[in-house]
Amino acid sequence: MHGIKLPTHKHPLYPAPWVSRCEGCPRRGGYVKDGYRCYECAFFFHKECAEATLEIHHPSHHAHPLSLVLEWPGPKYCKLCGEFSLNNIYYHCSICDFVFHTACAKNPPPNVIEYPKAHEHSLVIEKDLYHPRCNFCGGGSRDMYYYRCSLCSLNFEIRCSMLALEIDYPYHPKHPLKILTKEEHHFSDGKCLICGEELRLKFYHCSICKFSVDVGCVRDPPPLTILFPKAHEHQLSLTPRKISFDCDACGMAGDRSPYSCQQCYFMIHQSCIDLPEIINVNCHEHRLSRRLHLSPGSWVCGFCRKNVDWSYGAYSCSTCPNYVIHSKCAIRDDVWDKLELKGIPEEPQDIEPFKVIDENLICHFSHKEHYLQLNEEGIISGGSIRCEACVLPIYSQAFYSCYTDFQYFSIDVKCAMLSESIIHESHPCTLYYNNNTYMECASCNKRDCQLFSCDDCSFGIDKRCATLPKTTQHWYDEHLIFLCYNKNKRGGEYWCDICEEQIDTMIWFYTCDSCCVTFHTECVLGDFSRFMPGRIVTNRNWGIKAMQTSPDFLPRCYICHTRRAVPFVLNLCIPQNNVFICSLECLITMKLHHLGKTVASRFELATAAVASVFLGFGSLFLLLASGVYV
């Protein structure tokens, strides 16, 4: 199924079995069989709107032709129906500033309605009402045409003029439906029985059966039967009633009006009938295909890590036989790129963090020009080597390095292997990257929605804490210090030897086994430890660089006026001044309170460049390139 390009939209459009809301005639409501959808924009178009011509002559505007406009700057009101929207396509006269929806332009209203359903007298179109108000629904706008009864001095919107106060509805043949206002819907659940949308100002209702349906589904009801092989091999029939069911396409529960197959008891949400067949998701490297059901067995969703019932529809990977993802997880806005890929050739992809050459050599995506050699854990480097990913010093942990004549390049094993899933020393289970659930980080106790987590154990650690070095060093102590994970097993009170404040043992901290002292992680690492020392940002006459502190070099912070024993400070060289900043908090305070507008603007430019220059490749870059989107 290839998408087609039409002049009414910038992206490929794909056939849709029906359309309930069209970008060419907004808020029309109801369903129209056969249309188009854009997966990238999540837009739907009626067939007549999507295939509109670029220029027309309209009987309501004889003076000039109307041209098709795809993107309109500012609010748009259709002169015929008065509807307003921000995203629609329009026909427009640039001379008179007339705007018509494509659907309204193709089906212009008659000048006279001899036998309207909403009123007993004939109605005549009125184009210049001074105080317009519809006496049927109560709405009104000066930017639309109305029908008017001169005998009764009543006005009707075009869409209301042909609505009867009582109707026979084909999906509820037992009793007629009467139109009611929103204030009278206390006896229903406030939703349309057909589409499930919230009822608006006017709707139709049967008080005997408590059957409510919105005006849109009265004007354009969904088809009673549909044959759509993409969803199911047999004909599907609408069941217009409240009924509890599990959708066979997505496995989620439904409560009203599914389509069902009488031959095999298949039931599906209306919204799941045209799920895309082949897609890319940002949590897996290969394409995924829609399956009507999986093979019997135990399956786990590759996104939410919850069980997938094999008897329901899901998306699976033909390259990775054990990878599946729930249908609803796969089409989330933050997971799917909104492109249908059926019929589009697949391009080869290579996004693994590294390729193994032999037991000691790898080819890493961040340094493809040379192989990196493994240096075993236990080799003491004294912190003179820094990881190009997280920029933290390497002491005794294992790392990969390049020893060519022209590259000095090293990366911690933990950072080299960082991908969608990790093994961390603090937890026995595999941790998976998750960006859709707020939970508390086990390291710092701060809540975040982007963590490596284990759902079974309700355990998670955020991106920064996941790359905290297991061993490091601070000039406050001559020995290597170790990250302590067993926070719940330690009793008594602990104090940080650097800041001399108490340590909360419910969060991770560093300890020196030789000296029996403890340190806050933030005191050991500081805010600027992940900046690459020696690299300078310049912006006009500005200069910013990270400088390592020592007992002999501990400058006073320009903002808080303290000499904090942080491992790094920022040196800001600004006109007529050379200042030091000890933390991000002080950096922000300086921008807000100590700089003028002109200087602040330059300051923002300079600080924006800090990450790109100081951070080397950066752990965030590793996450992105490894297929983890944050």
UniProtKB/TrEMBL annotation:
UniProt subcellular location? Membrane
Pfam family name, one: Ost5
For this UniProt record, the keywords arranged alphabetically read as follows: Membrane, Metal-binding, Repeat, Transmembrane, Transmembrane helix, Zinc, Zinc-finger
Q: Report TM segments.
A: 605-629
Task: Provide the topology term for how it sits in the membrane.
Answer: Multi-pass membrane protein
Would I find Zinc among this entry's keywords? yes
* Ranges where the Phorbol-ester/DAG-type domain occurs: 8-57, 60-112
InterPro entries attached to this UniProt entry = C1-like_sf, DC1, PKC_DAG/PE, TMEM258/Ost5, Vacuole_Formation_Reg, Znf_PHD
Kindly indicate whether the keyword Disulfide bond belongs to this entry: no
To which protein family does this belong?
Belongs to the OST5 family.
Name-wise, this protein is Phorbol-ester/DAG-type domain-containing protein
Q: Provide the organism lineage as a comma list.
A: Eukaryota, Viridiplantae, Streptophyta, Embryophyta, Tracheophyta
